[in-house]
Amino acid sequence: MSEAPKDRFALFGALRLANAGAGLVFGLLQTAILARTLPLDSFAHYVLAGALGNALWAFDLGIARVLFTRLRPAWLDGNVPASLARQGWAVVLFYAALVLVGAVVLFAVALLRAIPDALGLAAFFAFTALNLPWFALRTLSVAVDRFVQIELAEASRRALQIGAMLLPLLGVSVGTASLIGLAAWALPVAPTLLRLRAIGAVAPGPVVGGMVQTWRSHRADLARAGSYALAELAIYNAPYAVASWLFGVGPATIVADLLAKTLRGATVLSASLCEAAVPAQTRAWHARDRAALIRTTQRVVATVALPTMCLSLLLILAGNELYAKLVADAVAMPAMLGALAGLLVIANGVQTISNHLLIHTAAFLAVSRAAVALVVCFAAGAALAFLFQVEVVRFWQGYAAIYAAGALVYATLAIQRARQLPS
């Protein structure tokens, strides 16, 4: 029925890490090519279209993860209910329909406002936003032990899309390149969907009816997963607004951006390694095998610890200098910023390891409560910072302290989750 994930931890981890790295490179390459091939106004329009596409990707709000926690045990038991398979199909197609509707709306707005290359902008939006249904496909594929196949498909689509984005350097318009990149999505998506259908992981059915059934069947966990996802978005993005509110738009905003990008980069690194252990962790959880779950999680900790500690040490020793060079010394870096960034990277690694275990074992209530409590703590900290007019360094020290405390809470919850299994 399924592959043996324990034997493929290294392969899955290497593929996941390579694809995550390729994603970061693709983002930088895309921005560089747009900047070099478009006039400033068009460049800004394409950046906005891409940002809207990325924002749509956040719409999932944990739905795919909730379906994972239902599909995974059913697959391991060898009995995937037809109703659950139809729900997976409905979610993927509903997400694809959202992308289509968004592209049509953007195309219409661009035409009404006489913005040049409306079709290219709509294609670029869809090209970016299709990560939403692809994320659902990836999650469902891992649930049925097709993790190596999905990473190979991911690698192929990255290669095709990087090739498409290089075309403007050969004289092809960005709009045409976006259309080609959009068409390239069919090559990994169609075979993946057909493969999942062939093994019974998804099954055709009415999209609207399937989405209604998904909500009715899992409404409690969907609400919890959604609140967790929204809280995490706030935790990662609120510093932009809060720092700008407290200290004005300018240097404080740039420092917030540097820290946010550091955390996102660390999250990509840690999450890619954590995801390699999800098949084995969830198999152990389903078998109620505490020893196997602890052994697999310890392997994840050891794998994540090395790059995390190296990055943290680099930031502690030379973070201020590196950040100053990144912004061409345009902004004076607050004292201890590098040390705080190093602490945040370690806390982020702890949190990512813990959250992957909690979420993939359906501990949605625990993570949602913890995330909402953290948001409340951050809000209280921001209010105190405003009330006492703290200096910028004190503000970031408080942010780092709350973030680190949150990581310890998540780690405690993960340990408690493992202890629920019989010894």
UniProtKB/TrEMBL annotation:
Annotated transmembrane regions: 9-34, 46-68, 89-112, 118-137, 166-187, 240-260, 300-319, 331-350, 362-390, 396-415
Transmembrane helix as UniProt keyword: yes
UniProt KW keywords: Membrane, Transmembrane, Transmembrane helix
Superkingdom per UniProt: Bacteria
Protein name: Polysaccharide biosynthesis protein
Organism the protein comes from: Roseiterribacter gracilis
